[in-house]
Each structure stands twice: as structure tokens, then as C-alpha cells.
Amino acid sequence: MTASDITVRPVATRADQEAFLALPDALFSDDPVWVPPLRMMVRDQLNPKKNPWFSHGEAQLFLAERNGAVLGRISAQVDRSHLEQHNDATGFFGFFDSVDEQPVADALFAAAGSWLKERSMSRVRGPFSLNINEESGLLVEGFKSPPRVAMGHGHPFYQKLVEKAGFEKVRDLFAFLTPMDNALPYKHMKLLQRFIDRNPGLTFRHLDLNHYDDDIRILVDLFNEAWAENWGFIPLTEADAQHMANQFKMILIPELVWFAFYEGKPAAMAVALPDLNEMIRDLGGNLWPKGWMKLAWRVLTRRAWSSGTRVPLMGVAARFKNKPLGSVLAFMVMGAIRRESLKLNMPICEMSWVLENNTQTRRSLETIGGLVYKTYRIYEKVL
Predict the structure, then answer these.
(1) Tell me, which fold does domain 3-172 have in CATH?
(2) What is the pTM of this model?
(3) pLDDT (tens digit, 9 = 90+) per residue, 62-111?
(4) 180 — pLDDT class (breaks 50, 70, 90)
(5) Quick one: CA dihedral 172, 177, 182, 183, positive or negative?
(6) Cβ-contact 330, 322 below 8 angstroms
(7) What is the dihedral sign for C-alpha 211, 212, 218, 222?
(8) What residue ranges do the domains of the chain occupy?
(9) Which range has the top average pLDDT, 86-100, 201-215, 253-267, 367-381?
(10) What's the CATH number of domain 178-375, 3.20.20.70, 2.60.40.3550, 3.40.1190.20, 3.40.630.30?
């Protein structure tokens, strides 16, 4: 087949959007570890009326077809928060899925690139759906296990399609798998507790639902402060964080969100989410008509509850960076999550993602028994 057989067009109607959402189910129908995401959540993510990302971003979805059959999809997006932070004329692509045909991938990337060039972008980077604070990277290692909540999946041939389209690697993101029942020996926890006992200014607590908005604000401030120097950093807005929290509120467990304070000021935080993907794996991405009842029953009764968690957010205030107290704070908030995870019978934790050149965090995770089991790659191309 040649490029002349392929038509790429923007998603313009509700039927187009449904075709965009449905394509992965067809492409991964024979993949035993594929977990269809809840379409309702993806619709909300792509809806400018529901997702506050669109207050600082613009996106266009595309479908690739041959004789009316959908073969691939992609998004192109401009994030003004990124441009204000980095001033680098870089746009993004995301939601990339395709059959194993290079002309299809080439046509999708050409359409996304043209849309970005029309908006004065000189470079395209991705995949991000929709930006680096959401689902990030192309899976290049770790195809034999299912994706955790809010992490991507893909076919091994996607890497070939992307690279043959002229993209080059800029960063790898690692997902660490950590057994919580033997991570960080308890004797180390005792040493840390002694350190805390000698520093009465240190206090710890979990998320307080009675002061939910205040705690979300603390989380956002700590995240933006802790991650400010990370490659590709985009500040997380309070509205963005509220949107994410609302999406996962059904499964949010206060005892799995921890804060540390030093002399009354926020010093560190860590957030663990039960793995929603385990609970929805058999729902086919749909909550209607019976999926709602199944998911609600599982959440309320803890039947088919997640056996593990994912830590998407963790950070220590900048004033403690490269200081012994900073390491103590990180270990203690994670130690609290570990303790509560074991009480909830969730012995496995994915900590993701971590930049390949973030040696300090990688060492810390390896210290508590973490092993890299998935690698996601960020690509870039000059337009």
C-alpha cells in the first residue's frame, strides 16, 4: 500500500470522536495485557468544557483511513504553559495508535506536523496525552505486563513506526516496580524514626477530606516546587490537579496520600492510587449499562480491588534538596504509604515515571527495592 491510498482527516463530529476512541480496542484485541481505558474518562479528557487543560492548550485530533476503514489516530497540541516556561516553539503529539504500516504512520505525523507548523511551532515532541503531567512516553520495554492506571500501552512495532518517520529519542522515562512488603527494611525505618524524634518540628499526616481543597493546593505547590528543574517541566495548575483528583475520586484513599511538614510548613508529599486498571480490565472501557454497578460493587466491597498501587506524584520542597533531611522526608512519606498499602493488602507499587538522568531518585527507589520493569520513550523531530 502507498500513501495515496490513505486519507487523514481531522476529527470533526461525534461519530469521528467515537471512532477515535474505539480504535485501540481493535488494534489490541489480541493483546492479553491490554486494558481498555474508560471511554467516559477519555471523552472528558478531550472535552474543552470539562478539562481545564484547554484553558492553556489547544488540540486537534486526526484519523487515518483507507476506503472508510480507520487505520490510525493521533493528536497534535500546543500547550501555552509549556511555551511560557521554555520558549522553545515546541508542540506535542499524543494518542498515537496505528496499524503496522509505515505510510499510515507517516501520514498521521505529517498531518500533526502541518497543524503545528500553522501555529508557528518549529519542533514536535511526544507522545504526550495531553502534556507531560498526563500520560507520557511511548512504551519501548515492558510489553508483557498490563499498564497501570494513567500509564500508556502500545505495540512493539510502534517504535519502528515513530523512528522511521524521522523522530529521535530525547529522553527515557522509567517505571519502577517495588514490592511494598520488603521495601526498605524496618531497621532503616527505626533509624529514620529516631531522626524524627530528635526533630520535633517534623510532623506527618494523610489527606484530610474535610480540608480537601486546601490539601490539593498544598500538593500542587509542592509538586511545582519539587519538579521545577526537571526536564520538560510544566507547572501543574490547581484546576488541572482538581480535574485529575475528580477523575480518580472514586478510588482515592486518604491514607495513601501523605504530607510532611517542617516547622508548620509543607515539606514533602507522596500520592498513591489503587490501580484502577485492575478493577476495569473486564469492562471493555464502558460503564453503561452494567459497568457502573460492577465497578461500584468492587470499590465498596473491595472485591476485585487492586492488588497494587501507582505513585504518580512525589516531591520534596526545594529548600531540602540535596540535604539529609530531604531524603528522610521522602523515605517517611513513602514509608507511610507502604505501611497503609500493606494494611489494605496492596503489596505491589509502581513508582512512575522517573527520568533516566534523575540519578538521585533512581538510587532512592533502588534502595527500597525498586526495579525498572517498563521504559517509555519521548521523541522529537524538527518540523
Answers:
(1) Aminopeptidase (3.40.630)
(2) 0.94
(3) 999 999 999 999 999 999 999 999 999 999 999 999 999 999 999 999 99
(4) confident
(5) positive
(6) no
(7) positive
(8) 3-172, 178-375
(9) 86-100
(10) 3.40.630.30
Average pLDDT in the chain = 91
Within this chain, domains 3-172 and 178-375 share the same CATH topology: yes
